[in-house]
């Protein structure tokens, strides 16, 4: 699933199907596509010449193309960091691309020209480099909610709008979550006199046998081995044991 398809699936869950509520400023709507938007898309002017039945009979393939062209591409959401793409896209669908982009630019502190150009994109990249995309999403949603609260019909639709913005923020923040830092946990292993005692006994025995041979004393079980070789192998075993101890402690 592409970024667009993933974000559109969330938008369509919020928008629902056919609605013709006289109190809704969007008017007749289906899949979140208003009658005015569909008329503009189909180049019908004036928009009221488009019958409501055309909105009601709207099919999903055309809906996807409209959303891709008029909203997703308009916001250049495909180049946005994960999470911010959905937050900006849903804002654009609900309140218009220009308003969504201008509010994003206000948060970024750049010129509010309603165009995602180099200045805006570079500002977003700086936020991403600083690890502040989640903060950017929260600030954008706060401005979106502030705009909705100022609308005259907020008392009628405010509860649904607040729920939608809250859901958008939840999904967007989850998408923008930084990868888990899977640093290996330090497992401390207690090493006492009994831990690995067999290894130490063998090494010490080899060391004693080697020193004994140097002094002219042969110990049973080590005959036929050079004294220098015994001492060298004993020291090697002791150092190897120390290395194993450090390796275990750091894993």
Explain what you see.
The chain is an all-alpha fold and 251 residues long. The chain folds into two domains: 3-175, Chitosanase, subunit A, domain 1, CATH 1.20.141.10; 197-249. It is 61% helix and 2% strand. Strand 1 (29-30) and strand 2 (33-34) form a beta hairpin. It starts with a helix and ends with a helix. Residues 182-195 and 247-251 have low confidence and may be disordered.
Give a short overview:
Helices cover 61% and strands 2% of the residues. The protein is mainly α and 251 residues long.
Main features:
single chain, 251 residues, mainly alpha, Chitosanase, subunit A, domain 1, 2 domains, 2 strands
Radius of gyration: 35 Å
CATH architecture of the largest domain: Up-down Bundle
Task: Identify the CATH class of the largest domain.
Answer: Mainly Alpha
The level of helicity is: 55-70%
Shape: elongated
Q: From the helix content, strand content and strand pairing, which structural class follows?
A: mainly alpha
Q: Give the tally of β-strands.
A: 2
Average pLDDT figure: 83
Largest sheet, spatial ordering of strands:
1-2
| DSSP helical segment count | 11
The amount of beta strand, in percent, is under 5%
Low-confidence stretches: 182-195, 247-251
The H-level CATH homologous superfamily of the largest domain, spelled out, is Chitosanase, subunit A, domain 1
Largest sheet: number of strands, sense, barrel closure: 2 strands, antiparallel
